[in-house]
Amino acid sequence: MRRSPANVRPGAADIVSQAAPDTDLSEGERARILAKAALFAPPPATLADGRRDLVGLTRDELAAEMVAIGEQPFRAKQLWHWIYHQGVTDFSRMPSIAKPMQAKLAERFVVGRPEATTVQTSTDGTRKFLFRYRDGQEVETVYIPSPDEDRGAVCISTQVGCTLSCKFCHTGTQKLVRNLGAAEIVGQFMAARDSYGEWPSPKDGTARHLSNIVVMGMGEPLYNYENTAKAMRIVMDNEGIALSRRRITLSTSGVVPMMDRCGAELNVNLAVSLHAVTNELRNEIVPLNRKYPIEELMAACRRYPGASNARRITFEYVMLRGVNDSPAEAHELVRLLKGLPAKVNLIPFNPWPGSPYKTSTGEAVRAFAEILEAGGYSSPVRRPRGRDISAACGQLKTESERVRRVKADAA
Ligand code: SF4
Fold this sequence. Notes:
Elements: H1 12-18, H2 27-39, E1 52-53, H3 59-68, H4 75-85, H5 99-108, E2 109-110, E3 115-121, E4 127-132, E5 138-145, E6 152-155, E7 159-160, E8 178-179, H6 182-196, E9 212-215, H7 225-236, E10 248-252, H8 256-265, E11 269-273, H9 279-285, H10 294-303, E12 313-319, H11 327-337, E13 342-348, H12 362-374, H13 398-410
Parallel strand pairs: 1-2, 6-9, 9-10, 10-11, 11-12, 12-13
Antiparallel strand pairs: 3-4, 4-5, 5-6, 7-8
């Protein structure tokens, strides 16, 4: 069963406009967009007891909170250090803050984390978290350790559900429930680090287990740009978590206007869910293509700042048997990418119950990869990770929905 707000789905243009305040809009249009934004807004950052969560605030907002309780703005710097560098959630464990002040803070604020309701670790080391937020909504976050090195990526979600309904994606079968707030987005990474005890934030040059972020979980991050951007700025802040933008990859299905904004403002690595080389097929399997067709998407990739051979744009291509995996399509992909610093991740399709597709044969994947390699594009075949815990690409949310249904059935 889907939850009620999920049945009201905004159009792509609506949310793009919502996230681009400088667009020329009529008053009626602006009001309509604000109403839609409110419908999908995250819940307030205040607990039932009136205390406010400090996670997810910018430095300026944190300073304003301190001033509002009669303290000096420099307290924000101290708190930032404890919250984001040390990972401390309890004010009484912040020794550089005097005891009376600790008590004052604890009366008014919390340093929140999403509640991990389920944590599963795969035989290959992949760890999947089901996080629940204050309003009971849940998302999944996955830590994927590198098989050969002492590092790994945390795949984080930006929305509960997704508006886009990509046909091969199980996550897309759950319609959008709401956007996540900045605290809820950064909180996934912080809670994953809690799970590995990776605090304080390792300094430059020191190995990190949780070394990268891929914004590739549930949802389309560029449809929740403001909150995603705020969370990424917190993660990148040098006095806190201090993750370089080069260690962050944001994946989009191709929300073209927001790709420009993301490049100009965040300039993190870009990944594009391409999956087809003709508009006809992409319209079908990535319906957003009807709004932003392949030509516009590729032009936006060419405009993306900082793309170079050292920092290539990643194109995700899920291999669907007999659908998009022919040699002719591989040649067309080489043509589309011509002149663009790019690599292609070939993703063997992860079937889910009722999915309309099958995984490409190993032979088809190899032939496809060889054509791309011959065209000058690195095209690693992504090894499915965490399959035994449904944590692989496109499978997110599956298990949590199933668990919820089992619970409902048992009630
Ligand atoms: S692939 Fe990404 S954008 Fe498409 S439906 Fe799945 S979660 Fe949404």
